[in-house]
Amino acid sequence: MQEMRSKITAKVEGGKLLRMEMELTESGERLKSIKITGDFFIHPEDSLQIVEKTLLMAGIGDGADKIAASITDISKSQGIQMLGITPEALARAFLECVKLAREVKVPAVTSLDGGPQDVNS
Amino acid sequence: MKWRVIPFESHDAFTNMALDEACSEALVSGLVSPTIRFYGWDPSAVSIGYHQSITDEVNLEECRKQGFDVVRRRTGGGAVYHDTAGEITYSVIAPELFFSKDIIASYKTICGWIVDALAAMGFKGEFKPINDVILEGKKVSGNAQTRRQGILLQHGTLLYDLDVRKMFSVLKVSQEKISDKMIAAVEDRVTSLKRAGIADKNIAYKALVDAFTSGKSFEFGSWTESELIRAKELSETKYKTTEWNFQR
Fold first, then answer.
1. Is A79 exposed, middle or buried (0-12, 13-18, 19+ CB in 10 A)?
2. Is the ipTM of this complex over 0.90?
3. Which of A2, A35, A91, B26 has the fewest C-beta atoms lying within 10 Å of its C-beta?
4. Nearest 5°: phi and psi at B94?
């Protein structure tokens, strides 16, 4: 069985580079793991783990608005400030990454501005 | 309050990062004054942002071959190639209360000192949010900030000289992309003081010291014994470790 994993790289409009890596359960209905990296700023720095946890718990069938709202809510309640990325960009990347994982291209790179590309292209 | 200014000194990457943290800790404990330090990297090094993946960003094999250090910073932002001869790096370590609560505004304040240094050398620099200073439309300084335990640490570089080919050899850019065209594209976006016509790095250093200390009560100083001991400890037990550098 192929693993349902994906990795994308996206340039946030007017911001920084965002990379997201995830693994879905075998059924493809839930997230097993997620990792966000990039050259953005989050204050306090360790709150990136809170953002990852929020996405890990998000329903992968949720729309971008709902996912962005959950990140915005947790950011407000925890005093998290983001520079160079936004909840909306994270939500878009999340959905793109889920889509790619379900297409079972392992591993792959994509851009939010364009379609998925094979990592070696 | 009087600032402590630590004149230019060169260290390996792990010690440089450890000194920033040791100083921040000492400041939290009230043992030292707010500090401005100027430094270089010997050997040349790559630092990556706190949220980056070292394997995504750095050609580790090439760094090993060339004898360069690779270290994760405590601050966000991107991967930076620090050439021993190519840049002057600074750190500002001070109570957060000295600066605006607004992070971009505080970047603007400290980057403004770099703009002032450029002005003293006859150039019109400009702060470009989030964290850059540009000269004639091209990046000449990158900066990164963290705030922990009430202490603001901002460090950044002023590019004196730039070897794009060497930079690309250690940052992870696919070899086929290291074309003349791509190098030209980077040279269109990034500049250095040498290219702008400053023939002596000391001129840039003096301008930086003057601009960073302007209007402040300060004295030149050195590290305390306890800062040096703590920095050595942090260098060995944190910044040199796989656990820290490969955490993402």
1. exposed
2. yes
3. A2
4. -155, 160
Q: Provide the domain count of chain A.
A: 1
Can you give the residue range of the structural domain that contains A75?
5-112
Residues from chain B that touch A44, judged by Cβ atoms under 8 A, are 147-148
Domain with B185 in it: 3-245
Would you give the DSSP letter of residue B165?
Answer: H
Mind listing the pLDDT tens digit for each residue in B115-157?
999 999 999 999 999 999 999 999 999 999 999 999 999 999 9
Q: What is the CATH number of the domain that holds B170?
A: 3.30.930.10
Within 8 A of A33 by CB-CB distance, chain B residues are none
d(CA A110, CA B143): 28
How many domains does one find in chain B? 1
> B145 CB near a chain A CB, below 8 Å?
yes
Integer Cα distance of B49 and B14 in angstroms: 14
| Token output for B235 | 């260098």
